[in-house]
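The instructor's notes for this session suggest beginning with a concrete chain rather than abstract definitions. Hand out the sequence below and ask the class to guess, before any prediction is shown, which regions might be ordered.
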Amino acid sequence: MRTGTVYVIDGRYTNQFALGEIDCTHVYLKPYTSRKPSETAIESGHVFHIAELKGMGEGLYEAVLEWLSGARELDHEGFKAKGR
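After discussion, reveal the predicted structure:
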C-alpha cells in the first residue's frame, strides 16, 4: 500500500494527515495527534472516496487523484483549507 502525508492549513491551525491508498478511488486518512515529527502518534482514521476530498483543501482533491493514479508523490505537502 502506498502512503503519503499532507497538511491542511485552516487559519491558525495546521492539520496533518497520513494517507493510505486503498484502491484507485478510495483513500484512508489518519490524523496525526502530535506536532513533533519524532513523536508522531496516529489516531484511527477514516476511509474517503476521492470525491469527498473536494471540500477539504484547495488543490487537495486534484493532488490525491494524481497520487492515486501514480502520477505524483505526496510527502509533506500543504494545502489551504477551502474558504480560508
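Then share the key points. The longest strand covers residues 13-23. The chain has a mean pLDDT of 86.
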